[in-house]
Amino acid sequence: MSGTFVGMPAFPKAAHEAVHDQTLRGNLRHATHTIRAKRAKAVAEVSDWAALREAGKLIKDHTLRHLDRYLVQLEESVTAAGGTVHWAADAVEANRIVADLVKATGESEVVKVKSMATQEIGLNEALEAEGIRAYETDLAELIVQLGKDRPSHILVPAIHRNRGEIRDIFRKEMSEWGRPAPEGLTDTPAELAEAARLHLREKFLRAKVGISGANFMVAETGTMVVVESEGNGRMCLTLPETLISVVGIEKIVPTWQDLEVFLQTLPRSSTAERMNPYTSMWTGTTDSETADGPQNFHLVLLDNGRTDTLADEVGRQALRCIRCSACLNVCPVYERAGGHAYGSVYPGPIGAILSPQLRGVTSEIDASLPYASSLCGACYEVCPVAIDIPEVLVHLRERVVEGGQVTAQGNKVVLKPAKGHAAERAAMRAARWAFSRPGALRAGQRLASRTRRLHPRSLPGPGKAWSGTRDLPTVPKEPFRDWWQRTNGGKDGGK
Amino acid sequence: MRVALFLTCVNDTLYPDTGRAVVKLLTRLGVEVDFPMGQTCCGQAHYNTGYRHEAEPLARHFSDVFGEYEAIVTPSGSCGAMVRELYPRMGERARAEGRGDTLAATLAPVVPKTYELTEFLVDVLGVTDVGAYYPHKVTYHPTCHGLRGLGLGDRPRRLLQAVKGLELAELPGADECCGFGGTFALKNSDVSAAMGADKVRNAESTGAEVLCAADNSCLMHIGGTMTRLRTGMRSVHIAEILASTEEEPTV
Amino acid sequence: MSSRERILGRVRRALGDGPRDDTPYEQAVPRDYLREHGTRSVAETVDLLAENLADYRAIVHRCTAADLAATIAGMLAARGAKTVLVPPGLEPEWLSATAAERIADRPESTPHELDGVDSVVTACAVAVAETGTIVLDGSADQGRRRITLVPDHHICVVRVPEQVVSSVPQALERLDPTRPLTWISGPSATSDIELDRVEGVHGPRTLEVVLVG
């Protein structure tokens, strides 16, 4: 398994393997079902959940509607508090900025807090190319990094691994990166956590540069917020001398008070806790007398497709996302296809609407993602910022089959309809033609009924997609409308 | 009350028994049912596959055919949700595309008076005991568009609980999608089939003979999986259970 | 063009699809959610704090101000702590009964030195009953963030009832965003193995909270 998502096949092909991998299916089923029940309980504890959800949605929508203003305000606040703000239009630029900042410290290694933004831009690989080693310190990220694997979940990137697999990875790989796994390491979660503690401790204590993302940035105060569980975040945010935070521009909230909404909805939605073990909040740097935490703070504001997403009035709601991963955990498709099939650091329902917007729908995988859903709506139901994921999925399907105007890297371009949908498009048009004419529909129904004895139970060719696993329904001897007319709506008796 | 039956293209073509059951049931409850012959398809498959513009003429056609009725009743949660949830959205999108209010205005009349069958029974007719008799062990699958789109809640279960002779078994993982999802069943057939197989295994674990739901599209997928897996279970539309009486039982 | 101008320009073009709503922010977002959940007496709020702290595996002690020094001494002794980190402004009285050696946190002390200390004792800024959370704001009786992070045993003293609030919204009202803040809900934990919660990773694996008052 490679460590990148480049050249991923379309979703159905990638999912095909996952569906038949019994270990993976078992791991995902166990993990997602465990968290589903817990989330429901944690949410039910809060009687005003619907109001919190609505407020969260409105805060995010308002912020996005005035994003330029809040970005400038945030920049002023962070700068006034002693931080330095950088702007990165894309991944290449963000990686360049971070690499240069690290080099300026003279260091060749950094410790990292789990961050979706740095995953998205491939920061670790970019730093590696510059001779800088980045150590992932979140337990799941560590498992992924040691296993030369790819993340498969937003919150728990190693969700596809069970405890036995994790033990094997630790035993085999830890010594390559530093302190080896303890002798006789078993697969109990407590022992695995202890092994990670020992392995990473030395790295934390000597680290001079920390790299993070942020869950929230408060425009009025310049405060950054990182929500975490293990304490690796606190280590990276407080022990190094230099801290570099790479954050997507949509992570802004206008006011300090806004945190009261998200600090209630995020933990309950993600880890199903009343509150996660640790939340760190910092505003620039402290005065040199207190010297609490890094004395050099850099904030890298990342676009990388976010403004293109913002330009789509239906699709922009995806930018409300607070990365809780509740939608992944309830998604029946994610549960069976696994995270890797989505070909992005953002898997699951949110990934299926985010990746094709951040990256465009031109690649095979991105054009297939909007279809990676049965539109069951479970994701929308649990989303703490009420992103109507099914609505955006359908909207993106439209973009794939019809093409049309989109924004790419800040420019308005006209997209051609995607290839490979010609037969479907013709079928849809033919169906529309027939359905616009009841007589034509009736003729088709009668033809189907008259030839019913000739219909096979299984279909060849593309029809196998249905009949490979499911029997076809038998066609009745007459359609309902013929019965209705023949019997005068049943009033004339007769079946 | 004069009510139009919006049977849906799938039921009309493949499941006429469901249509006859709705007519029988509503007639028994004193409702005058009409089947407008001009009806075809609500456009859901087009819309959900990304062909919104192809769905628009179908939606206009729907409005032409059904606009004059007091109430429109459909034995399909997903087609009901199409009219109620997505027709207004189609109108909004047309407006956003600079095409004015015409589509929204054309579709508006049918939106509030379209009811899914169980909703119509419980909310409009105010009945939960429809006088049905069905001596079988049954489990109920709440389909996604009925559950989360229309918010049918416990209406179907209340109707089933009042059926004489019927033993209702709880379906584990009831709220989970069966994996049909329209063209999803074809485009992502592996995942769809895996979801269907899990749904069927959960249904089997109840010991019920029959799985019922308020949507034949989902039942086509679940039933097709049941026979392929040789479970011995059957899938039946809830209308056929509610129409069944001691005098004229549905098997 | 700088990337700053480029990004701000893209944002403005992206939002060009309709009139901007200039409703003041206070009115743009109706806050129909609750300031706290349920009604409780002061004593019940403190009980809820104790209950929720314990639910996430913090060890909770309750004592009077007069017993505090002895309580802390007992906890350190039970732990076998030979050394204890002391923030600069901690009430000297609190550690008057312990035999453990007091280590002052100095700006020049390295993380490695902190790692050699057995325990740390701090006060807190506020505690949140509904979530079982204590918040440290770096005041002199709480010290720099690192001192409650590197040692494996953290004793945190909460003055009840005056430092206890019911809810997250009430806690934020009391806090100063310009200070470095750490919200702590139980000892460090992870859900990264099969989405099951396990306590004890990088932060202090033992969190003891003393409710004094």
Description:
The complex is a heterotrimer of chains A (495), B (251) and C (213). Chain A has a 6-stranded parallel β-sheet with strand order 1-10-7-4-2-3, sandwiched between helices. Chain A is of the alpha/beta class. Chain A has helices at 11-19, 22-44, 49-65, 67-80, 91-105, 116-120, 123-129, 139-146, 163-177, 189-206, 232-238, 259-270, 306-310, 326-330, 332-337, 348-358, 364-368, 378-382, 389-402, 422-435, 438-450, 464-467, 480-487; strands at residues 84-88, 109-112, 133-136, 209-212, 216-218, 223-228, 242-248, 252-253, 278-283, 296-302, 404-408, 411-415. Chain A contains 23 helices and 12 strands. Chain B has helices at residues 9-14, 16-28, 44-49, 52-66, 77-96, 102-107, 117-124, 144-149, 155-161, 184-187, 189-204, 216-228, 238-243; strands at 2-5, 32-34, 71-74, 114-116, 137-140, 167-169, 210-213, 234-237. In chain B, 63% of the residues are buried. With 213 residues, chain C is of the alpha/beta class. Chain C has one domain: NagB/RpiA/CoA transferase-like (Rossmann fold). Chain C is built from 6 helices and 12 strands. Chain C has helices spanning 3-14, 25-28, 42-55, 68-79, 111-115, 168-174, and strands spanning 59-63, 83-86, 101-104, 119-122, 126-128, 133-136, 153-159, 164-165, 181-184, 189-193, 196-199, 206-212. Chain C has a 6-stranded parallel β-sheet, with helices on both faces. Chain C has a 4-stranded mixed β-sheet with strand order 8-5-6-9. Chain C starts with a helix and ends with a strand. The relative contact order of chain C is 0.18. At the A-B interface, α1, α15, α18, α19 and α20 of A face α1, α2, α3, α4 and α5 of B.
